Amino acid sequence: MRIRIVSGKYGGRFIAAPNTSATHPMSERARAAIFNSLSSEVIGAKVLDAFAGSGAVGLEALSRGADSVVFLEKNRVAANVIRENVELLGVGSQAHVVSTTVVNWLDSSSDGEFDIIFADPPYHQPQFSTVEKLFGLLKVGGSVILSHSGRGGMPHKTGIVVVDNRSYGNAHITLYRRVE
C-alpha cells in the first residue's frame, strides 16, 4: 500500500505504508482538512507524531514546513517503514523515529514541549489517559489533533480546549488548543 503526501514540498510524492493490520493510515481527505485548519501554524513547528503508523501525518507536517518531528511507533515493522519513508524523502536531519510505546517514551523523554501533537491511537484501544498525558507536552497556544472512533468519552485537561470536531468516514478528528 502506498500513501500520497497531499501538499507542500513533497506534495504528490508517495510513501510506503506498513503491511500490517496494526496500523490504520489516515485518509488523504482527513490529512488535507487537518493541515488546512492548522494553516501557517505548521511552519517552523516542533511536532510530535504519537502512534505514528506509517508516519504520513508527521511527514505531511515536514512537507508543509515543520522544523522537526518526533515519530513514536511501538510496532517495529511500522517504525522501520517510517525510517524508510524518512530516508526516501531525505528528511533524516528533521526526523527522529522512536520504536516504543507512547507511555514508555513519556516516562523517559526529555524532548520538551511541542507546538503540534498528533495522536492517532488504535480505535479499539483509544488510550485516552495516555493522550491526556500528551497534553502536558503542549506549548501554550499549541494544538493537539486527536483521531478517534467517536465512541466513548473524550480526553480532557484543564487549560486545554476543544476548538473543532469533525468526522471523515469512520475517523473523528478533534482539534484541541492549549490556552494556559
Domains, number: 1
Task: Compute the number of helices.
Answer: 5
What's the overall geometry?
globular
Radius of gyration: 15 Å
Beta-strand segment tally: 9
Unreliable sequence segments: none
CATH architecture, by name, is: 3-Layer(aba) Sandwich
What would you give as the CATH superfamily? Vaccinia Virus protein VP39
The arrangement of helices and strands along the chain is EEHEHEHEHEHEEE
Describe the overall structure.
The protein is an alpha/beta fold and 180 residues long. The chain has one domain: 3-Layer(aba) Sandwich (Rossmann fold). 27% of the residues lie in helices and 30% in strands. It contains five helices and nine strands. The strands form two sheets. Strands 5-4-3-6-7-9-8 form a seven-stranded mixed beta sheet. A two-stranded antiparallel sheet has the order 1-2. The radius of gyration is 15 Å and the shape is globular. It starts with a strand and ends with a strand. The relative contact order is 0.16. The model has no long low-confidence stretch (mean pLDDT 93).
Main features:
180 residues; globular; 5 helices; seven-stranded mixed β-sheet; alpha/beta; Rossmann fold; two-stranded antiparallel ribbon
Task: Set out the fold topology.
Elements: E1 2-4, E2 14-16, H1 28-38, E3 46-50, H2 56-63, E4 68-72, H3 76-89, E5 95-98, H4 102-108, E6 114-119, H5 128-135, E7 138-148, E8 160-168, E9 171-178
Parallel strand pairs: 3-4, 3-6, 4-5, 6-7
Antiparallel strand pairs: 1-2, 7-9, 8-9
